[in-house]
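Thanks for the sequence, V.! I ran Oxidoreductase right away. Repeating your input here for the record:
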Amino acid sequence: MARAAVSGRLTWRVSSLASSDELTSSARRLVFEVPGWPGHLPGQHVDVRLTAEDGYSVQRSYSISSAPDGNLVELAVQRVDDGEVSPYLCDVLTVGSQLELRGPVGGWFVWRATDPAPVTLVAGGSGIAPLMAMVRVRALEGSRVPFRLVYSVRTPEDVMFADELRRRAREDPGLDVRLVYTRRAPEGSPEPPGRLGVATLNTYGWPAEFNPHVFVCGPTGFVETVSDVFVALGHDPRRVRTERFG
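Predicted structure:
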């Protein structure tokens, strides 16, 4: 997931691409080795800076999708065909290549494993990236906090981390995963494709009386619609946290 870069006094670090593999036909998982990485909280992001030989520089921000793991930082990058950065990261960058990375950034859209409140996660497309970090940290910490994830995608082929999500939901009774398809549902699906609506969020998210934390991430229009639904359903707006891109 990419956003406009956030400026600050954090240190730029020269980082090397340790591994790269396909998440979907239009997205890649990129794992960077970042010397001196201080660690991060699930939900934070990094700034990425590319500099051409003529000195031209461009920055973008990407959510961290991994749990803390020493000097390794994983990003899930969705290719934007007319973009300046994502096509390079997805199609040109090779293992061993270097770029500058700064972070972690952000302190509002984060989940802490010490918080006992139930959690509803809602992702649209590549907005799954920071929520995946939360799912992974929950498992790493052995947390029993119940998680419900509602993930909206266009088609079955657009589901990032599909195998991992299926495995985690199958093995962990405290994690419920609900996929919503907006363009084409899997063959044999009992529900036709359609946009994420009030009924689905009310059914598969935690009810307001449970006082859950709600994290919503995705395109701007998606995030605004979903967060408005939760507030209309009686959730405390202060507990509905959002990240948006686009």
